[in-house]
Write a structure and sequence with these properties.
The protein is α/β, with parallel strands linked by helices. The protein has twelve helices and eleven strands.
C-alpha cells in the first residue's frame, strides 16, 4: 500500500514537472498600455499582437493588457526595465525620458503622417532610437497617438486667449505644460486614467487628446465643447527594454521586430479612418464643435520653439531638420 502511494505521488510529481517544463518552453510577453477599449492604442497593439503571434507560433506569445491594467505610463516604463513586462506604448511621456523626444511637443511641427514617416526615415535611428538606447530602451516601431484637440466645459476655443484661466489636463511632459501656460491656460498634468473622473467632478475644466482617445474614454459625456486645434501630433512608440529584449532568443527578437515594422502601415491607415469617423461620432454625441484659428496658435507658439532651441542640446538643428522634411 505504501509502495503504491509512493509510486502514485512520484508519478504525479513527474507529470507536474513535465507540465511546468512544457509551459516554460513558451515565452509569455506582456504588452501593457493605457488605451481604453475602442481606442487607437488598443487597435494598434492588437494589430501587433496578431502579427507577432502569427510569426512566433509555439515559441512565444504576446499578450495585451490595456486600460492601464498593468500601470500608468510612468509605471510601465519602470516595469519594462524591471523585466515585469516586455512592451509598452508610451507617447508624450517620452519627452521625460530624453530631451530629443520633446521635438514632438513643438506645436504644429508635424504636418501629416507622411511628414512623420519622413522624419522617422531620416533621423529616427540616429536621433530617437539612439536617445532611447542611451536610457535603456529600444524602439521597435513608431505607431500613433495622433493630432490633438481641445475639449472643455467653459467656452469654445478659437484663439489662444480663449484658454485664459481654463484648468486643462495635460500629459506629464514639461513642453506641453509650457505651451499651455504660454496660451494662458492653467495646465494640470494628470494620468490619463484619472481624467474622466476629474472632468466629471469639475476638478479640471478640459483636456486635449486625439479624437480616438476622446471618444474611447467617453469624454464627450462630460464635455461641452470640442475645438479642432490639431496643436500637436504625438507619435506612440513600441517600446521595450534594450537589456531584457537582448535576452530573448534571436529568432524571437527578429520576429518581433518584423511584426512591429509591418504593423505601422495598418496603424496609420486605422488612424486616418478613425479621424473622420470619430469626429462625426463626437458631433452626433452632442458636443459643440468649432474650427480653431490655427494661424493664431502658430503665431503664439514661437516662444516655445525659441526655448527648445536654446535649452536643448542640438535643439535648433533638430527643429530645422524636422521642418525641412515637411512636404
Amino acid at each position: 500500500m505504501m509502495r503504491k502511494t509512493f509510486i502514485t505521488a512520484l508519478l504525479g510529481s513527474v507529470l507536474a514537472l513535465g507540465a511546468s517544463t512544457a509551459s516554460a518552453e513558451k515565452l509569455i510577453l506582456k504588452f501593457g498600455h493605457v488605451g481604453n477599449p475602442g481606442s487607437l492604442f488598443e487597435a494598434s497593439v492588437n494589430e501587433f499582437v496578431k502579427n507577432a503571434n502569427a510569426k512566433l507560433g509555439d515559441r512565444a506569445e504576446v499578450q495585451a493588457f490595456g486600460s492601464s491594467q498593468l500601470g500608468k505610463d510612468a509605471e510601465l516604463l519602470q516595469k519594462l526595465k524591471l523585466g515585469q513586462i516586455t512592451f509598452a506604448l508610451p507617447s508624450s511621456v517620452m519627452s521625460s525620458v530624453a530631451d530629443e523626444f520633446g521635438i514632438f511637443e513643438m506645436p504644429y511641427i508635424i504636418k501629416s503622417r507622411e511628414h512623420m514617416k519622413a522624419v522617422q526615415a531620416e533621423i529616427g535611428e540616429s536621433v530617437f532610437n539612439a536617445a532611447a538606447e542611451k536610457n535603456g530602451y529600444k524602439i521597435l516601431s513608431y505607431f500613433e497617438n495622433g493630432f490633438r484637440h481641445i475639449t472643455n466645459n467653459t467656452r469654445p476655443v478659437n484663439v489662444p486667449a480663449d484658454l485664459e484661466g481654463i484648468k486643462l489636463r495635460t500629459p506629464k511632459g514639461e513642453w506641453r505644460v509650457k505651451m499651455f501656460k504660454l496660451y494662458g491656460a492653467n495646465p494640470t498634468p494628470m494620468a490619463f486614467s484619472e481624467v474622466f473622473t476629474a472632468l466629471k467632478t469639475g476638478v479640471i475644466d478640459g483636456q486635449e487628446n486625439p479624437y480616438a482617445q476622446i471618444w474611447s474614454a467617453k469624454f464627450q459625456e462630460v464635455q461641452k465643447y470640442l475645438s479642432i486645434t490639431g496643436h500637436v501630433y504625438t507619435p506612440a512608440y513600441v517600446l521595450t527594454s534594450s537589456k531584457n529584449f537582448a535576452k530573448l532568443p534571436e529568432d524571437v527578437q527578429a520576429d518581433l521586430m518584423a511584426a512591429a515594422a509591418e504593423s505601422q502601415d495598418a496603424v496609420y491607415e486605422m488612424a486616418a479612418q478613425l479621424e473622420t469617423e470619430l469626429l462625426e461620432n463626437l458631433k452626433n454625441g452632442g458636443v459643440t464643435v468649432n474650427e480653431a484659428d490655427k494661424d493664431a496658435f502658430i503665431e503664439a507658439s514661437k516662444p516655445v520653439y525659441d526655448e527648445f532651441a536654446s535649452t536643448v542640446e542640438g535643439g535648433a538643428e533638430l527643429i530645422e531638420t524636422v521642418q525641412s522634411l515637411a512636404k
